[in-house]
Amino acid sequence: MFTGIKAVSYFFDPVNRIAAVEDRLMITSKVASGKVASGAVREIANVFDERELKMRRERAQIEIDKARELETIRLAKRAEEIAKAKKEAAFKRFYQKPDECDQPERQSIRVECANKYIRARHEFDIAYQE
Asked: What is the pLDDT of residues 92-120, one digit of tens each?
């Protein structure tokens, strides 16, 4: 369904996501206690910013893929509707209702008219496929 996205990401893997949050909390407590140098703090912050950026990119890619998939489905449905409408218009031009079928008085005439319509539709469907 979604191409180009690995399921082993921080977005999809709650264990990695929780570990990243716990790492950030542990580092924050070390910084507060003065156990980490300021240069290391900047480097660690950059790593976490890269992880956050990666997660945001993955989310954006997922949204793009979803939108593309929905658009593809919408276009396919629209093309199917257009083809069906063209086929129906062609059948209306093809089939001419017999005069006796306009106001049939007897049941037997109605049945015969229905059979003529069914046969004409079947013939049309075979011809239309070719």
From this structure: 999 999 988 988 889 999 999 999 999 99
Q: Are residues 106 and 72 in the same domain?
A: no
pTM of the model: 0.50
Q: Is residue 16 within 8 Å of 58, Cβ to Cβ?
A: no
In a shared domain, residues 74 and 25: yes
Cα–Cα nearest to 120, from 92, 87, 88, 95: 95
pLDDT, one tens digit per residue, over 62-74 is 999 999 999 999 9
CA distance 2 to 65: 6
Hey, what are 35's tokens? Answer: 């156990």
Tokens 């069906």: give the residue. Answer: 84
Neighbours of 113 (CB within 10 A): 16
Tell me whether residue 68 is in a domain.
Answer: yes
